[in-house]
Amino acid sequence: MSYNYVPRSTRVYRCLNEVKSVAGGERGLVIVNWTIAGATVMGLKTLWWLPAAFFIQIFLVWMYKKDPMSRLIYIRYNSQTDRYDPWPHADTEVNSRPDGFDKGNLC
Questions:
Q1: Mind listing the pLDDT tens digit for each residue in 15-59?
Q2: Is residue 33 assigned to a domain?
Q3: Mean pLDDT in the chain?
Q4: Structural domains in the chain (count)
Q5: pLDDT value for 2
Q6: What is the per-residue pLDDT for 9?
Q7: Domain of 30, in residue numbers
Q8: How far apart are CA 82 and CA 71, in angstroms?
């Protein structure tokens, strides 16, 4: 009796690991862009916003093609300090721990 051993394999779909996109741009930014465009055109009756929203959409598609994680990278970069200062300061907490993990007691 012979057995044909076939090793297990699992497919990893690329779309599950990528940032979600809609109309070629990052999903959240595209939705915000066209929601604002729809609200201004229907509510304020300013038709000049449609070409502006179209050019913003082109920019979002260009930005997504260049780097799909560019918005997250910018947010991370923006939250960092302007310069690195290696010296200790008076307001620096020593041995700070989260609440519930013996906070306030030194090791």
A1: 788 888 889 898 999 999 999 999 999 999 899 999 999 999 999
A2: yes
A3: 81
A4: 1
A5: 62
A6: 84
A7: 19-75
A8: 19
Cα separation of 92 and 86, whole Å? 12
DSSP letter (8 states) at residue 17? T
**Does 97 have pLDDT greater than 60?**
no
The residue written with tokens 């044909």 in the block is 4
**Closest C-alpha among 74, 35, 85 to residue 56:** 35
Contact between 39 and 1 (Cβ < 8 Å):
no
Task: Report the greatest alpha carbon distance in the chain.
Answer: 78
Q: What is the DSSP string of 37-95?
A: HHHHHHHS--TTHHHHHHHHHHHHHHHHHH-TTHHHHHHHHHHS-SS---S--TTPPSS
